[in-house]
Amino acid sequence: MLLGAVLVLLLLGGAAPASAHAGLRGADPEDGSVLESAPRYVTLTFTESVGLLEDSFRVYSPENRRVSLGEPQHADGASDTARIDLPDGLAEGTYTVAWRVISADSHPASGAFSFSIGKPSPTAPAVPAEQVEHPVTKSLYDTGRHLAYIAAALLVGTAAFVALCRPPDPAPLRTPLLTGWWTLLTATVALLVLRAPYETGTAPATAFDASAFARTLTGRPGIALLTRLALLLLTAAVLLWLSRRPAPEPDRTPRAHLAAGAALSVGLALTWAAAEHASAGIQVPLAMTSSVLHLLAMACWLGGLTALLLTLRRTRTPPPVATVTRFSRLAFASVTVLVVTGVYQSWRGLGSWAALTETSYGRTLTVKLVVTALLLAAAGLSRHWTARLAAAKAPVAVEERVPQLVGAAGAGPETKPGTGGPGNEEPGTGKSRTEEPGSGEPEAGPGDRPRPPADEPDRHRRALRLSVLVEVAVGIVVLLVTSVLTGTLPARAEAAAAETAGTAPVAGLPGASTVTIPYDVGTPGGKGRVQITLDPGRVGENGVQAVVFGADGGLTIVPELRLSFTLAAKDIGPVDARLTDRGGYWATSDLNLPLEGTWTMKATVRVTELDQVSASRKVRIAR
């Protein structure tokens, strides 16, 4: 779990904009088109179904002022479209349309384009760069997604190990079972709360907007998260009920328990399939079935590995070989399902071999395949040590039965196998077997197997523990890469969007601009960068959010961050932004920039009580 935590922190550093999973197929009016008269509405067509927000469209006039709009809707009821009615009386000139929708697989998609009425404006509207995700919101949301995957594997895998592998002492497995349940519950609540700001690309504080949260509860991702919460509460009730019932017979799990566990596990897996890649694109029913099987196989294998490792390390007596071999069979079946479903999902997401190297989805998938190959190699090693352990235990069991047979025949406490005494006569002679002088062991018969060294099972068990530990560590990496893959635009959808000409977004989206300022204090570890977002980045009142990244690219906490703006051409400034620490990022909502022009933005970062540094960047503020 430590490795998983470290990798999650590393992933937090990559607070880049999320990839859009709904590709824009076409726009009416088209990007860059010049119309003789004002259109009645703007219509967008996407590669998959999309959800609409209250602010899905923003239209800016040639004077860069927002045009008053109504509620967005789907064109003619088609779920892969978005439409907004335009008001009458639009003036001549160039208009900019900024859009933001929610893909069917729950990820936000955004962009911008322009069209002109009559003739293009002499000067195109000065608009900032494409709308970005809020770095803190995205980092928190991604962390919740990663933890949810790991927790699901731990919960489902541990339960499957107890039910199917039947360890004699399941007490040490209560901790991972409860840890998986609580972690998944916490992550699901966090994802539900952060869903609204994640969709709109705003700060985490906007999660407390009642209207936005109500909209989340009626959307597909919100319904999936609510269903997951309900299933987790039902799981807790079932576990509590089972804990109060008499223990089942040894080496046997009642069918009712297996059925209940299977139903809850499938239900939990469906909450992922219903809100990820499988729910959009081609062959949706087959894709969702494959996604559910893939997730359950992953959980049984990787979560079961964790349970096996704890069983090998924490039980008072070594687990019986039967438990280990049962898990070996379960792991083999899980790997088979993973390979079959993984090949199908890769084909569905890629669309072509070239996409493996030419798209982000393909490159991420390649990383997953390489790490999975390492995981399979570790699994093969574990299977080898499992077979060696079973082979080493088998002859010992034969030898251990001999004294019991002798004792049952009335041997005294000093009688040993191979010495004179009842039950040791030579067959057909009535004479006792006698021990050769100095031998100390009976002579091996023609059908006897040699007794292994006494410590051989222990050595095999230690080797198995080590190989399983390696499997668990590499498995966590596979889970995290899988989580990243679900947040990446599938290559097939990217190609479908690219086939449509004239729909590439123009540079610029009103409403937010992002500037990155690097800094270097000159001390070890004193390098980093400040990512500053201005909203709307125009004359008048602006909001500011600033996030500091350390030398390793991860989020870092600094004692103080100051930000000021100076317009030298008009002899204005410096204007102090008066940023306040909001617990992980710095922000203000009332920065007033009174005039348009190129302002100098100066950031002062204090890393320690003694070390601070200032750096500046130019930023264009339009009217």
Automatic annotation (TrEMBL):
<feature type="transmembrane region" description="Helical">
    <location>
        <begin position="177"/>
        <end position="198"/>
    </location>
</feature>
<feature type="domain" description="Copper resistance protein D">
    <location>
        <begin position="322"/>
        <end position="405"/>
    </location>
</feature>
<keyword id="KW-0472">Membrane</keyword>
<dbReference type="InterPro" id="IPR007348">
    <property type="entry name" value="CopC_dom"/>
</dbReference>
<feature type="transmembrane region" description="Helical">
    <location>
        <begin position="147"/>
        <end position="165"/>
    </location>
</feature>
<feature type="compositionally biased region" description="Low complexity">
    <location>
        <begin position="408"/>
        <end position="417"/>
    </location>
</feature>
<feature type="transmembrane region" description="Helical">
    <location>
        <begin position="367"/>
        <end position="385"/>
    </location>
</feature>
<keyword id="KW-0812">Transmembrane</keyword>
<dbReference type="InterPro" id="IPR008457">
    <property type="entry name" value="Cu-R_CopD_dom"/>
</dbReference>
<keyword id="KW-1133">Transmembrane helix</keyword>
<keyword id="KW-1003">Cell membrane</keyword>
<keyword id="KW-0479">Metal-binding</keyword>
<dbReference type="InterPro" id="IPR032694">
    <property type="entry name" value="CopC/D"/>
</dbReference>
<feature type="transmembrane region" description="Helical">
    <location>
        <begin position="287"/>
        <end position="310"/>
    </location>
</feature>
<feature type="transmembrane region" description="Helical">
    <location>
        <begin position="255"/>
        <end position="275"/>
    </location>
</feature>
<dbReference type="Pfam" id="PF04234">
    <property type="entry name" value="CopC"/>
</dbReference>
<keyword id="KW-0186">Copper</keyword>
<feature type="transmembrane region" description="Helical">
    <location>
        <begin position="223"/>
        <end position="243"/>
    </location>
</feature>
<dbReference type="InterPro" id="IPR014756">
    <property type="entry name" value="Ig_E-set"/>
</dbReference>
<dbReference type="InterPro" id="IPR014755">
    <property type="entry name" value="Cu-Rt/internalin_Ig-like"/>
</dbReference>
<keyword id="KW-0732">Signal</keyword>
<dbReference type="Pfam" id="PF05425">
    <property type="entry name" value="CopD"/>
</dbReference>
<feature type="compositionally biased region" description="Basic and acidic residues">
    <location>
        <begin position="446"/>
        <end position="458"/>
    </location>
</feature>
<feature type="region of interest" description="Disordered">
    <location>
        <begin position="408"/>
        <end position="458"/>
    </location>
</feature>
<feature type="domain" description="CopC">
    <location>
        <begin position="21"/>
        <end position="117"/>
    </location>
</feature>
<feature type="transmembrane region" description="Helical">
    <location>
        <begin position="466"/>
        <end position="485"/>
    </location>
</feature>
<protein>
    <submittedName>
        <fullName>Transporter</fullName>
    </submittedName>
</protein>
<feature type="signal peptide">
    <location>
        <begin position="1"/>
        <end position="20"/>
    </location>
</feature>
<feature type="transmembrane region" description="Helical">
    <location>
        <begin position="330"/>
        <end position="347"/>
    </location>
</feature>
